[in-house]
Structure of Amidohydrolase-related domain-containing protein:
Amino acid sequence: MLITGTFVHAPTLGSLQILKDCLLVVGDDGIIHHFAPLHSCKSQSILSHSSPEQVLKLPPGSFVLPTFCDLHLHAPQYMYHGNGLDLPLMQWLDQYAFKAEERIDTDIALAWRVYRQLAKRLIEYGTGAVMLFGTINVEANIILAEVMQTAGLRAFVGKLSMDISTRPTYVEQSTQSALLSAESFVQRCQRLAKRLPPHQRLVEPVLTPRFVPTCSNELLEGLGKLSHKYSVRVQSHLAEARDQVDWVRQERGVEDIDVFSQFNLLTPHTLQAHCTFLSSSDLSRLHATETAIAHCPLSNVYFSTEPFKLREALEKRVKVGLGTDIAGGYTPCMMNAMRQAVIVSRMRESAKVALDDDGRTEKGLAVDWKETLYLATRGGAIALDLPRDTGVFAIGSPFDAQEIKVYEPETRTGVGPLDFFDDPDGIDEDMIEKWWCVGDIRNRNRVWVQGKQLK
């Protein structure tokens, strides 16, 4: 596949590159084999040996951007997203989350229906990679893995592990059965991928202790050993809400970060969601262990009494990306997650709510739209440890991309919600910022993952 036109990416935090009049070549393996200006000798040679039918020429009003990485999404909760955000976290789990997940586990037809629709929506929203929480039942999670693989999405699927629950009908029977179930899922999910050529293996299993309140020490210890045995990733929730943090302190006598650390669950292959109640020294611990964070600004507003210390985490070089946290957040749209991250950070800056360990008020807490675009693309890819250079356009990286159309070149008018009052003349930074602020699915023409067009 050959594409000519404008390419936009954010290779580092705060940077934005608009690369006009370029040629990008994707091989049958979905890897970028060539990326250079159109006028370069090699580009001209490639084009001279290609037929016009092989070349996708982007019009002046369009650009190609890396797909988004959603680092935290509860797949079964998509069934009721946009509802049930009226309770504190621990009560919300009882009233809404556990019920929905139990229903998915007992209704296989429903699982297929919900997960297929979720995959469709993720593609519409430009998400190419997603870290998913599933349910307890192995079969339901295999369905989730199959749906994501068939849809062509990069998906990290986590079978929930929880041997403690406030809902008697939604809990694993014993610690031993929970560990056997987790190991069975890992083996089956890995076999699902191994039957495919290497470049088509898009789905991986993730060990998923829900969070400390639902996991015994024995379960956490066993999951730490399974992660090492099978070289698989780990995901969970860390220091999310006041009631959850207080519960751990009362029941375990320590912070939940200490619990995860004790059982070797803070590693370069771990991704922890939220982390809103972590101290400066805690963030340093995550950096030291190379543990990544999924920042979910919308659900933090609903379920945390504190915002995540995003600027501080970035300054400590913690790996951070963004998550939608369905259904603690009400939309799987990563563009909303970017906007909300900026809004929350600006409120922190205005209120000066963050204090360092010496009690001094921190400054410069706000992030801007370019920084969140990095977090949603390249930063998220790094946090997920995706293949080489995913999230930027570079030779050797997989072609995970979305085509964005901001204006019609024939009529010189904006697409979807975008309006322009001066004649547009190619893609510029102001146009991209306007799309970032108000764009929607009407601006998304195509989505590719590993070179395969999904939309």
In short: The chain has 14 helices and 18 strands. The CA atoms of residues 68 and 127 lie 4 Å apart. The chain has a mean pLDDT of 94.
